[in-house]
Every structure is written in C-alpha cells, then in structure tokens.
Amino acid sequence: MTSAALLLAADQKSAEVTDWAARAGWVVGLLLFIALVYWLMREGWKWRGTLQGDLPELPTAPDEPGPARLGMSGRYHGSTTAGQWLDRIVAHGLGTRSRVELTLTDAGLDVVRPGATDFFIPAAALREALLGKGIAGKVLTEGGLLLVTWAHGDRLIDSGFRSDHAAEHTEWVAAINSMINETHTTEGAR
Hints:
Layout: H1 2-11, H2 20-51, E1 68-81, E2 88-89, E3 98-105, E4 108-112, E5 119-122, E6 126-132, E7 134-135, E8 138-139, E9 145-152, E10 155-163, H3 168-189
Antiparallel strand pairs: 1-2, 1-3, 1-10, 3-4, 4-5, 6-9, 7-8, 9-10
InterPro entries: PH_bac (IPR057446)
Protein name: PH domain-containing protein
Domain PH: 55-176
C-alpha cells in the first residue's frame, strides 16, 4: 500500500502560484476605469449646468412671508423641465437631492434645503400641483411624489417632493391648487 500511495502522491501537482503582478495590474486598471467613468459623469453634470446657464437666479423668501398655511418635512428629489420627467435641471443647485422643509404661505412656497441652495416659489409663479410617481432618477408608487409646476424666467419647472408622511400629499395638492385659483381669480379681477 505504501508504494501505491507514493505513486499517487508523485502524480499529483501542487497548485500554481498566483501571479501577483498580473492581478495587481488588473486591479489598478479596473480602478482607473471606474475613476474615468466617474469623471465623465461629473463633466456631464457640469456641462448640463452650463447649458442651463440662461436660467435666472432662484428667488429668495421675502422677509415677511405671512402665516404658514401648511408645513412639511421630507425629501427634495429634483427639478425637471415641466412635462419631461427625465430632463433634469441642475443649474443653481436644482438638481441636488436633499432633505427639505416646505412652508406654504400666502406669498408662495418656501423651500429650505439643509446643505443645498434654498429657494422660494412666489404664489404668482405657481401653476399646478399634482401627485406623481416619478421624476428624473426617482420612481415611486402612484401618488408617492408631490409635483409642483412653477414658472421661472421663461421656463416651466416641475419640482418633486416626498413628505416623511405620504398621506400629507393630497392636502398639499388641494392647498396649492386652491391658492393658484385664488391668485388667478384676483389677477383676473384687476
């Protein structure tokens, strides 16, 4: 039996030694490729911002906006060209997702974003509010997103918000659309 075991052991080969130089080369190459893709994505984002450079500066909240009609905390998911939910607007920080505190007053909609640019949508600029399911890179269940359409410069913009309590969305849609109707009725009477 010992001779049979010796013959078996002599026939087997040991595992090949890993070629560490080739493996390191592949890892470095993969890391360089990932860095290149990231850099190209960043350049594309900056290029989109340059193309949207004609967008005027975002309005800021007035000193005395009046009493709050509604308040909400949640997430800001971005802004797009109205009706084109994949055409993200990145100029002036509108493409940056963030936490958000929304306050609806008689003066308009105050959008406070910690870590990102705050902006204000005057009541006269509001066009429509509705429940949606998606905006540039974010798709939710039907009615999971509060979409506010507003005019800024010569563009109509859709901004997407999601409340921490999704049941609030319906109340926000009703309040904003009611405010729009009041504003247009008042302007039409003048």
